[in-house]
What we know:
By secondary structure, the protein is mainly α.
Amino acid sequence: MLNELDQKKLFHPTNSENQRQLYPFLENLPGGGLIWIVFWLEILTFALFFLVFAWIGRTDRTVFIEGQKLLHPLLATLNTVVLLTGSWWVARAVFLARSPEKISAWLYATGLSGFLFILIKSWEYTQIFKQGISLSSSIFWFFYLFLTLLHLAHVALGGVIFIWLGWKSSSERLQTETLEAAAIYWHMVDIIWLILFPLIYFTR
């Protein structure tokens, strides 16, 4: 015989129970289901932008090649190293999260790597703007500035998140799911850049 509580669960499940029944796999994902929804929405959105950029580049090749000549691929390469280093640091933090060792230093380092990326990118923007270039200069420069600034906003958000997590973890233990969600976000930012970087700087 079912007691009253069991009957309520069987015939009137709560919203969270409904979600677990409909999406049982979400419970087992690192970082929780929500961050993975954000992850794929962001990846697919940027993928659409990349396809448009590549298609226009094929139809207006001369403008794109001339624009690429004014870029600074060495700075972009340095920024790639900075982001990947940040990814290693956050992976280290996740690995150590289950041990008694403090992880705040790793989280602060990840956040600072994001701000270093912004600093290097800002210097590159300064060199470009000195030449009178803006969003309206050409279709290449519109997409370059739009895509890199959009990505830069994601880096800035990641930097703020990890500085905050570093501060929080210095006084209390972070939930594993929170840390994993932040790490997934940072890796998403990395993936976007690893496609954006060669597409803008080297693809002819």
